[in-house]
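Private note to self, pasted from the team thread so I don't lose it. Backbone tokens:
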């Protein structure tokens, strides 16, 4: 029985720890105990490939090797390709253009081939959350859109390619994490929508995924009060009732990571998950302890052996489709240059002009102000392209006479944000936002190129007269002409800067995204992206 219980669990595998022989032995021991598989985080290409092959050779049945590769295998493993986030994909791809659809299939197939190459057979994609909260701290750009029809279409396009490649695709996070302002890594989000609203919006993409043939669905640690008072991961009404009976899903149901804090106040979580109808327990904090909890639950009759057997049978059914070495029968050659080119094309096609009220481009020089997550400032590309690059707290516009160096040039605010677990926010601080707003108010309105206007003080500026006098030490100076705000990450932050002459959404913080924006600003390419979400830009 104990071996059977381990077969309900996918445990964590840290690729960066493989240099440790004791760590390797710990992983080997889990395989000997009958673990269902591993969720892979980090590591180097050849080292990970060899280790996974070794694990598969040891296992009695093929192991699930899962990984969060929403942005391609390069998101986790060094040596593979980084692709743009799902929201950037939606911005770049026009679903009514056959050539775009074919290009999307090529890109997802490239991700599938790299997954197969490293040994990942359960890519935890696509994200089917419909992002409807601008302040969503954990989904945001991981979602395709705030439109359920778009999310359904793009999700199904991913699923078809992944399943055709022999992989176990995974739709997440049921019943939908897109309308929350709380990160479930930190606390339990409560969704108060009506049942009809949930079905029409958040659950629609999952229903379409089931019709498309998705192999697995991940439950979110979310409480949808119109369905149950229990979180979805522990809810029989949600899993046995809605997912199995009403939606007719007969694939694998996998929990979101059980080491997250959303469920921290609940006891006997592994048993409650199995009782609710879950098949696979993902990433418990302690695998052996999770098995002990299941053993105790069997003894106390909280769960019965039949529930265990049903889950194991479903797991073995899907494992029977997997090869021990997922590269067997697969054209092993990976054209990394081709894959990088695919990524670049998507990135460039995704860059979106959200607002433009003045003719500012092409730009030969500008004052660039870097804001947001400062870890992206030092490696940014802007210093190699523009003469005056500073951070928000050290911009020449806040220094006496500094603005004179910027006569007739636009000011560009490059704002970096990221979505990551446990962070609690996908935006910028109130202080940073107010500083940028104040600076925008100091910049004269945009101009037709070659017709710069002399600077004038904006009486509505929130800055004190003292600070204004520092910014405009001499009235004869002509300062920056035209303001541009670029979001490298969440497009929602652009709604805070309605007064800027130009707003640009880039969806990611990568050098590739920065390079694409710079090319567009200089007139070397056209910005063609379509905004995937609605922004409030009304004055």
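Design output:
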């Amino acid at each position: 029985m104990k071996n059977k219980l381990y077969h309900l669990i996918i445990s964590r595998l840290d690729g960066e720890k493989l240099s440790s022989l004791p760590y390797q032995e710990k992983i080997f021991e889990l395989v000997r105990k009958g673990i269902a598989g591993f969720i892979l985080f980090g590591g180097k290409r050849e080292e990970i490939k060899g280790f996974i092959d070794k694990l598969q050779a040891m296992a009695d049945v093929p192991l699930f090797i899962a990984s969060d590769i929403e942005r391609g295998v390069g998101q986790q493993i060094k040596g593979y390709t980084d692709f743009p986030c799902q929201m950037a994909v939606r911005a770049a791809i026009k679903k009514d253009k056959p050539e775009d659809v074919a290009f999307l299939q090529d890109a997802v197939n490239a991700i599938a081939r790299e997954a197969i190459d490293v040994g990942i057979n359960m890519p935890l994609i696509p994200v089917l959350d419909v992002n409807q909260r601008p302040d969503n701290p954990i989904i945001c750009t991981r979602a395709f859109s705030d439109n359920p029809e778009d999310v359904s279409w793009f999700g199904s396009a991913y699923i078809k390619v992944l399943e055709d490649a022999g992989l176990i695709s995974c739709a997440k996070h049921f019943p939908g994490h897109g309308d929350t302002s709380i990160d479930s890594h930190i606390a339990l989000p409560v969704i108060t929508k009506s049942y009809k609203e949930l079905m029409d919006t958040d659950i629609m993409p999952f229903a379409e995924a089931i019709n498309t043939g998705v192999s697995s669905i991940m439950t979110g640690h979310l409480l949808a009060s119109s369905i149950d008072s229990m979180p979805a991961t522990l809810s029989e009404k949600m899993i046995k009732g809605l997912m199995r009976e009403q939606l007719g899903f007969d694939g694998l149901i996998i929990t979101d990571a059980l080491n997250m804090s959303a469920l921290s106040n609940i006891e006997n979580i592994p048993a409650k998950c199995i009782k609710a109808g879950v098949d696979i327990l993902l990433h418990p904090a302690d695998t052996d302890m999770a098995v002990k909890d299941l053993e105790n639950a069997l003894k106390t009759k909280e769960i019965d052996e039949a529930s265990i057997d049903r889950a194991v049978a479903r797991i073995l059914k899907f494992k029977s489709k997997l090869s021990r070495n997922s590269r067997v029968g697969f054209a092993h050659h990976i054209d990394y240059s081709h894959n990088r080119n695919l990524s670049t094309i998507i990135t460039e096609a995704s860059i979106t002009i959200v607002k433009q009220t003045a003719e500012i481009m092409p730009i030969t020089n500008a004052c660039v102000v870097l804001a947001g997550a400062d870890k992206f400032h030092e490696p940014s590309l802007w210093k190699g392209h523009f003469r005056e690059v500073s951070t928000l707290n050290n911009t020449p516009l806040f220094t006496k006479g500094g603005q004179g160096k910027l006569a007739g040039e636009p000011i560009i605010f490059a704002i970096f944000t990221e979505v990551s677990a446990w962070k609690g926010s996908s935006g910028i601080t109130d202080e940073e936002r107010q500083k940028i707003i104040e600076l925008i108010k100091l910049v004269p309105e945009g101009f037709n190129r070659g017709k710069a206007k002399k600077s004038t003080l904006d009486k509505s500026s929130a800055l004190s007269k003292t600070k204004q006098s520092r910014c405009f030490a001499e009235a004869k100076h002509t300062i920056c002409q035209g303001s541009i705000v670029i979001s490298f990450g969440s497009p929602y932050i652009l709604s805070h800067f309605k007064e800027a002459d130009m707003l640009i959404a880039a969806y990611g913080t990568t050098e590739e995204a920065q390079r694409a924006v710079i090319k567009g600003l200089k007139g070397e390419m056209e910005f063609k992206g379509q905004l995937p979400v609605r922004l409030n830009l009304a004055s």
